[in-house]
Design brief:
heterodimer; A: alpha/beta; Nucleotidyltransferase, domain 5; Rossmann fold; 6-stranded mixed β-sheet; 14 helices; 32% helix; globular; B: 439 residues; alpha/beta; Arginase, Chain A; 8-stranded parallel β-sheet; 12 helices; 23% strand
Chain lengths: 570, 439
């Protein structure tokens, strides 16, 4: 049996899954000030009367990192960057503890200017004097040649508790994001480490010795050991958990849109043939942009508890939430109140809901029922508009080859899946408005925990081969090898695959269940003065996000008390 | 937080799967290092920089500009259609005010493609700027356009297409034609009788450095633009005047390009040539993007940049001043020159021999234009290519007067009856008609 636990903003869900389905589920309130006890009480509840030996896998998805960042409760971090020519690195300053130093590596990984040891020692001294324990060393093009970052680490290793190097966070090019991501890893490291060590210790005390897996933003997992180098990857795993929990209902060979409708926001994501779409470079939330692999999700400030008001005779829904719906003791009218008034939702205080919608109706000069209908209709169509804009945006993504341009795959959603509290009430309206088959994900209240439990271990490897310079390099994997001039496409693919397999197994993958996908493969002839000098190969391959074998259809099977299958729309 | 002062659009289409042939300068690898640099710098993340997807232009888009012989499919590949589509996508976004300005980083280039196309010349088949300008004229309220060609080679294709059009100001600054392909672009080449002075050619001596380029921009290009008052400024942003370019002999730099862009303030820039793919393009393209977006570019400097080595000699400085002044004088006399060129209604003929180096084709042209005081004048081109076809092509301009239209149709009908022309083309821009008669 396997366990999945997802810490949400208000509730924490935990499930115990067997190959038959959900054996047990537990919901406990989330205590934001004490996540450790939240996690522990969830697991304790789940493990009651269960022999620890039966548990083969535990996956945790927490808001630890997200909360720490939001509440600014992170460690101070020192950053040393070596940028060379280009955009002034001052633009990427994190805070006072930021020191640009000399040194330059070019686009082909060649050193153009060495780093200056005295300069680094001096920056290190200033950082140590400022009381910083964790630092990041980031170089431009360090994913092509990490030697400057390694030198900085060597020079300063005795002065700090841990030094994070930019080339390890991702094989992707993007210097500003590399700085931000390295900074995040360093900032949450100590908290992440003490939290999960404590969780591991308590689980061991309960007799549970299986390695803990942690859910990442890309909907995959990594083991505790891997997470110590990249704790930032655990940020925003919550939305990923829900998405993974709905995979079983996504049809094969078709495109699906998933809406996770919450109280404050609706998260939108997309499956193509049961595989969730990933951000091409990394997580971005507003101005924050990183190299953290993540599912492509779009969050719209519109949920069941969004505030409804009238502005210039027009209905405005969201983005702010002022508390619960009036039907549940809130102070301002919400889409939930509209659903209560319309009788779509048979819960809450209908009188209070009426009162709220009445006020809106009066301002609009229409009947209460008409106002409720308009609110409900508008909320559903706003969510749909958002989703189609997202699809449109993805379909207009630029491509870089003639072949991609001409073959350009266009996403065309043929199914909508709904998750979250208000989901079951909106399904009919959403189906009518969109004309697309719409289904509420059964047991959607614990889909997040199910998604976490059954999520596959994922990872990605980038490999650059330059036969003119005679090397194959994947700095994030600490890999560099000499290659002969005739190194072939086949050799490149083999090397990348072996790097990926090693990484996947180290991160906790089942060696027999690694589904590999090539994200990028490019080949260039290097020609100088009309003479071929060699080839450049660039490839990126990944273990796709998905569910582990034996559990890939878990939601489709019913077990235990929860009615998992029958809960269809309306 | 990095924010662009100007909202700037980019189309990046490196055509990573297209080459003229594997070792040709115009090959897959050309924009690889530029892509690496621009991606590593996080350019697409900058607030205010928008990446656009190129269009795929259609045959009708090409037919506003070119006569393709024997037809469009035979002389173009998909990459040409997408490259030119990069330019139209940016242009549309500028016209719709989604962006303040934009840069199409596309390949292959286009500025050597003339009105009649029998094949590839100077790695060009389709003139991207002309396709874009005529697309704009048909779809938006655009009349007067200035195209400033800063590629190191004379933009002879664009020059040819707009030779008779007084509403399109074409300025090319390039390495002296006596020392570089295509061998043309001298100050006396001022345009046809109806458009004298709307074609400006500024040949620069080998060894011209950043100082010389910026001098010409300040002393000649900007004053002429000021006087012409275009609705749009387009920059054919070739980057082969760089000091590391393998095909040319100039001393321009990334800082120089950035400053030139800041001075010129193009609405749309389109990448043309540039074959120092590692030493120049990554830095020059980055500099141009930052300059267009109004972001500090002071640290965009090539790793091997040495201003001492890139100084221009006094001899070169003197030559540049002379040519700059000469061009200014010609421009000031443009009305006079047009009047002197001939009388209304006269036909003027020029004979040319055009070599298509890329496809090894030799073309002889006899071009006849009607001198007209009411419009840009109908142009009739008798063109025979070897290997290739003997054709006749009639171009009736957008603003054509009644007489010019009539003459154009007459020429088309007459030629259609003649055995010697394998194909006869009619491009009536006044009505948007394109006709082909084959035999």
């Amino acid at each position: 049996m396997i366990i999945g636990l997802d810490v949400g903003g208000t509730h924490t869900d935990a499930v115990l899954l067997s190959s038959k389905g959900v054996e047990k589920q537990v919901k406990v309130p989330t205590d934001v000030s004490d996540l450790f006890n939240t996690v522990l009480s969830g697991l304790t509840g789940l493990l009651k009367d269960i022999s620890p030996h039966e548990i083969k896998r535990i996956v945790l998805s927490t808001t630890l990192t997200t909360n720490a960042v939001v509440q600014k409760k992170v460690d101070p971090v020192g950053i040393i960057v070596s940028s060379g020519p280009g955009i002034d690195p001052e633009f990427f300053r994190t805070d006072d503890n930021y020191y640009p130093v000399s040194g330059s590596i070019d686009h082909r990984g060649r050193e153009r200017e060495p780093v200056n040891e005295m300069e680094i020692i001096s920056a290190g001294k200033k950082l140590a004097d400022a009381g910083v324990d964790y630092i990041g060393a980031i170089g431009k093009f360090s994913t092509r040649n990490p030697s400057h970052e390694i030198q900085i680490k060597e020079i300063l290793k005795d002065k700090f508790k841990k030094i994070f190097m930019g080339h390890q966070v991702s094989g992707n090019l993007n210097f500003p994001r590399r700085i931000a991501t390295t900074h995040l890893n360093a900032a949450v490291y100590s908290m992440h480490k003490s939290f999960f060590n404590a969780v591991e210790k308590s689980l061991k005390e309960k007799g549970l010795n299986v390695p803990i897996q942690i859910l990442k933003a890309d909907g995959g997992t990594m083991n505790l050991e891997s997470s110590m180098e990249f704790p930032g990857q655990t940020i925003l795993s919550g939305p990923a958990a829900s998405v993974m929990g709905s995979i079983a209902y996504a049809p094969e060979k078709k495109d699906t849109v998933v809406f996770d409708i919450g109280g404050t926001t609706t998260d939108i994501s997309i499956f193509i043939n049961k595989v969730p779409l990933l951000e091409p470079v990394g997580i971005q939330r507003g101005k924050y942009k990183s190299l953290i692999r993540s599912l492509k999700t779009y969050s719209k400030g519109l949920g069941g508890d969004s505030r409804v008001k009238v502005v210039d005779d027009n209905l405005m829904i969201g983005p702010e939430r002022m508390g619960p719906a009036m039907a549940f003791g809130g102070k301002v009218p919400t889409p939930t109140d509209a659903m209560v008034v319309l009788g779509i939702m048979d819960q809450g205080d209908k009188k209070m809901a009426m009162q709220g919608i009445d006020a809106i109706a009066e301002e609009l000069g229409v009947s209460t029922m008409k106002a409720a209908k308009n609110i409900f209709h508008q909320a559903c169509s706003m969510i749909l508009t958002e989703a189609f804009e997202m699809v449109d945006h993805i379909n207009h993504k630029p491509v870089y080859t003639v072949h991609e341009f001409l073959q350009g795959y266009k996403i065309k959603p043929e199914k909508i899946l709904l998750l979250g509290g208000p989901a079951r009430y909106c399904a009919g309206e959403i189906e009518d408005l969109s004309g697309i088959e719409t289904q509420v994900v059964p047991c959607s209240s614990v889909a997040n925990a199910i998604g976490a439990a059954a999520a596959r271990t994922t990872c990605e490897v980038s490999l650059l081969v330059d036969t003119e310079q005679g090397f194959a390099v994947s700095p994030e994997e600490n890999f560099k090898a000499s290659v002969p001039k005739d190194y072939s496409e086949e050799d490149v693919r083999k090397t990348a695959l072996s790097l990926l397999k090693t990484k996947a197994i180290e991160s906790g993958s089942d060696p027999d269940n690694i589904e590999v996908e090539t994200i990028e493969f490019q080949k260039f002839n290097i020609v100088r003065n009309f003479v071929p000098k060699g080839k450049i190969f660039k490839t990126k391959i990944q273990v796709m996000p998905g569910l582990i074998r034996r559990f890939h259809n878990i939601c489709g099977q019913s077990s235990g008390k929860d009615n998992i299958k029958g809960e269809k729309k309306k | 937080m990095l924010k662009a002062k100007n909202r700037t659009g980019l189309v990046f289409f490196p055509a990573f799967d297209w080459a003229i042939d594997p070792t040709h300068p115009e090959r897959e690898e050309r924009l690889l290092y530029t892509q690496d640099q621009v991606t590593e710098e996080g350019v697409f993340d900058i607030d205010g920089i928008e990446e656009y997807k190129p269009d795929l232009i259609t045959i009708d888009d090409i037919r506003r500009v070119h006569f393709c012989v024997p037809d469009e499919e035979s002389v173009t590949t998909q990459s040409h259609l997408i490259g030119a589509g990069g330019a139209t996508a940016i242009a549309r976004a500028v016209m719709k005010k989604e962006i303040k300005n934009g840069f199409a980083l596309v390949r292959p280039p286009g500025h050597h493609a003339m009105r009649v196309v029998h094949g590839g010349r100077g790695f060009c088949h389709i003139n991207m700027e002309a396709v874009m300008v005529e697309y704009l004229r048909d779809n938006f309220d655009v009349k007067k356009v200035a195209i400033v060609d800063t590629d190191c080679h004379h933009g002879d294709g664009t020059n040819d297409i707009y030779w008779h059009d007084p509403d399109t100001l074409f300025i090319s600054m390039h390495q002296d034609g006596r020392t570089l392909y295509p061998g043309s672009g001298f100050p006396e080449e001022l345009g046809g009788p109806n458009a004298k002075g709307s074609n400006i050619n500024i040949p620069l001596p080998p060894g011209t450095s950043t100082e010389g380029y910026l001098y010409v921009v300040r002393n000649t290009v900007l004053p002429i633009l000021e006087e012409f008052k275009p609705d749009l400024i387009i920059n054919s942003a070739g980057q082969d005047n760089h000091y590391t370019d393998p095909l040319t002999n100039m001393k321009f730099s990334a800082q120089g390009y950035s400053e030139l862009t800041t001075l010129l303030k193009p609405d749309i820039a389109v990448l043309e040539g540039g074959y120092s793919i590692e030493g120049a393009l990554p830095y020059v393209n980055l500099g141009i993007i930052l300059a267009m977006a109004g972001i500090d570019y002071s640290r965009v400097v090539e790793p091997d940049y040495d201003p001492e080595k890139l100084k221009q000699s006094d001899f070169v400085t003197e030559k540049i001043k002379k040519v700059s002044d000469l061009v200014n004088r010609y421009f000031a006399q443009r009305q006079e020159l047009r009047e002197k060129a001939g009388k209304h209604g006269q036909l003027q003929e020029r004979h040319r021999e055009i070599f298509y180096d890329t496809d090894n084709i030799f073309e002889r042209q006899k071009e006849r234009v009607r001198i007209c005081r009411e419009c840009s004048g109908t142009v009739v081109i008798d063109s025979s290519a070897s290997p290739g076809l003997h054709v006749l092509a009639v171009h009736i301009p957008r603003n054509a007067c009644k007489d010019c239209i009539e003459i154009g149709y007459q020429a088309f009908e007459t030629a259609a009856g003649k055995e010697k022309f394998k194909k006869v083309f009619l491009q009536d821009r006044s009505k948007g008609i394109y006709k082909v008669k084959s035999r």
